[in-house]
Amino acid sequence: MRHSFEQNTRRVLRCAMAAGLTACAVPPRPSVLAVENAPRVDGDRATGSNLLAANEIDATKVMTAYDAIVSRRPRFLSVNQSRGSDRAVVAPSVVVERGLPESLDVLKLIPASEIAEIRYLEPWESTTKFGTEYTAGMIVVRLRALH
């Protein structure tokens, strides 16, 4: 079942307010293929890198996940025009801790200090792992473990 943008936004905001923006994670969803099995290269600053690691985020001194991406990997936020007759403009979706895909707005609610890594999945990867409606790619956010 797909939720509307408004329903997802309300759910994220309720979670963020209840947790004081410190531990707002969507519960794991077993049907979604785990991304954490993908190889990680911490500190990879290459222009073409699809990974933004915690140490690089910490060095930027930004406040949110969105700010970190704008600062270090702005291409993650690229908006594409879909193919077909409607030619709709589509933006990447966001998955936080194997949750349901959300809009880019959720990135503004995630404190940078809580991020373990942000990984961008190319459109072919996102449609393979999450479904054919995710043709603009996917931004996958893994949070640091809470102590």
- The percentage of residues in β strands lies in 15-25%
Level of helix content? 25-40%
Distance N to C terminus: 33 Å
- Biggest β-sheet: strands ordered side by side in the sheet: 1-5-6-4
* Biggest sheet details: 4 strands, mixed
Annotated CATH architecture: Beta Complex
Total individual domains: 1
CATH class: Mainly Beta
Structural class: alpha+beta
Tell me the CATH topology: Ferric Hydroxamate Uptake Protein, Chain A, domain 1
Shape: globular
- Using only C-alpha atoms, the radius of gyration works out to 15 Å
Give the low-pLDDT segments.
21-47
| Strand element count | 6
Alpha plus pi helix count = 4
Mean pLDDT: 75
Sequence of secondary-structure elements: HEHHEEEEHE
Description:
- The protein has a four-stranded mixed sheet. Strands 2-3 form a two-stranded antiparallel ribbon.
- By secondary structure, it is an alpha+beta fold.
- Helix content is 26%, strand content 16%.
- It starts with a helix and ends with a strand.
- It contains four helices and six strands; from the N terminus they run αβααββββαβ.
Q: How would you sum up this structure in a few lines?
A:
By secondary structure, this protein is of the alpha+beta class.
